[in-house]
Amino acid sequence: MRVGVADPSAVRASVPCVDDLGAMEQALDLPRERDDCVARAHLIPQALALPAAEPFRGEYLDELAYAYKQLGRFDEAVDAMRKALDAGWDGELDDHPSARALVADLLLRAGPAEESERAWRGAELERPRDPRVHRAAGNAYANVGLHEQAFQWRTRGLELALELADPDEGELLWLLAEERATGLGEPDQLQQRAEETIWEADREDRERAERFLRGRHAAEPAAPQQR
């Protein structure tokens, strides 16, 4: 995703304050199309001040949190995301399994590791059997250079993924195993088990594909013989 690079003073000069939500949505069209987060960070607080925006408060705050995150304004992103949750926002997130996980990630980027750790534990308690939470935490810690914590979260995520043994989550298991391997020298017992599970699943997929192709070929009518 492209971070907006518009000049804040130019944004303020070019976009008038409006008191109509429809006009505000029109003003936001181009910044959304360009992923211009400076303009969005300027316009969305104006939208939130409009009485007509109240039913959409959670969605606007979520968008504002995204804009602040892209601009590196992590404290403001945390505040906006928490307000979105208070407003009842429950939408989908691209890169995080839950809004709590996103808040924890933003807190980690903002600075205090202790507060972020509490937030990650809260996200884990909310979805204790979801390895996506642990993968998101592992990636968040790795992104800020805290590789020991990243390894611990990825280890628990890999353990959970193996326990769940969900055939529809093969890609998640593969990603967890690959990311955890970056914190290892020689593969340990858990890593070996994960790699064997992935290899076995790949073998079964290949065999199913071969059976399907053989069955389809057998079902095809024979070509008429030429006389």
Structure description:
The chain has 227 residues and is mostly helical. It has a domain at 1-91: Alpha Horseshoe (Serine Threonine Protein Phosphatase 5, Tetratricopeptide repeat). The protein is 70% helix and 0% strand. It contains 11 helices and no strands. Helix 2 (21-34) packs antiparallel against helix 3, helix 4 (57-70) runs antiparallel to helix 5 and helix 6 runs parallel beside helix 8. The longest helix is centred in the last third of the chain and has 31 residues, at 189-219. The chain is globular, with a radius of gyration of 24 Å. The chain starts with 7 loop residues before the first helix and ends in an 8-residue tail after the last helix.
What's this model, at a glance?
The protein is an all-alpha fold and 227 residues long. It is built from eleven helices and no strands.
